[in-house]
Amino acid sequence: MPQYGSSGRPPRRKRRVGRILLIILLAIVVLIAATWIYLESSFNRVNALEDYAGRPAAGKGTNWLIVGSDSRAGLDAEDQERLATGDAKGQRTDTMLLLHLPDNNEKPTMVSLLRDSYVDIPGKGKNKLNAAYAFGGPKLLAQTVEKNTNLRLDHYIEIGFGGFASVVDAVGGVNMCLDKPLKDPLAGIDLPAGCQDLDGANALGYVRTRVGPRADLDRVIRQRQFISALMDKVASPGTILNPFRLVPLLADAPDAITLGEGDHLHNLPSLGFAISGASDGSTVSTSVPFSGTRSVPKIGSVIVWDEAKSKALFEALRNDTAVPSNVIVMPGG
């Protein structure tokens, strides 16, 4: 049997293989680091959260304000027509969610803030919640949410029309099952009943339309279902391990998302997992309890929060305690 010395070929081959594996490992590390730096430096930023007189003190856990706006920034006329964005002037919020991540073993809680909620807007009096964004952008909206919930917000994230559609297209669409057909020319959708993959344009129409007997309340249900399904798709092996989906997603994400100035890439995974948890019950999902609706001159129909139940909900979040079952409601419940 041949014996190999220090100059034998097999040891040299082993060293060569070892160097190749080391180079591959270093290349992967460099690629991950470069991607991280690119994403961290490329997100849009906005000064949404700042101190002011009377701001609520920090409670336990972490609070996110998640905003879906009707921003048409970056969309040309062709894109606006394809996405059926309409030609409304100014900028409003179609979706507002408060997400609480506890520091203990309690479940995360995702709260829909109905856009027609009748609330106090600092410096503007009482109006619909989504008017705060129109009056003063992200900063006034954040202050309004803090003042009316007595919760200090720690993080802010916003996504506009074009960004939302791009992310959905990047992951290859999102499967949704409709109990009945959903048609809304204003939102640009004509969806049949049954399970189907929604592309970016149809997904945007699906979460925007107010068609249904309960209008905005039905829309909130669709929004929560879709956002949870989208987060599941983003985190799935079919996206993470598929370069034809992952690369477009990483390329589109920075333009699609606006973060608060103090927010960073490492804050996002826990946000995504908590949102996706709404689909399997690992995240508590509710709207702010409300007592009814009424008409206000020059403002229109508004939603009135149930004072006792909404206070109990926000106090539970503030103290990282279990949300009382009697305040957990679905829109229309």
Automatic annotation (TrEMBL):
Keywords: Membrane, Transmembrane, Transmembrane helix. The keyword Transmembrane helix applies. InterPro entries: LytR/CpsA/Psr_CW_biosynth, LytR_CpsA_psr. It holds the Pfam family LytR_cpsA_psr. The keyword Nucleotide-binding does not apply. It comes from the Bacteria. Residues 92-235 form the Cell envelope-related transcriptional attenuator domain. The chain crosses the membrane at residues 20-39. Gene3D superfamilies: LCP protein (3.40.630.190). Belongs to the LytR/CpsA/Psr (LCP) family. This is LytTR family transcriptional regulator.
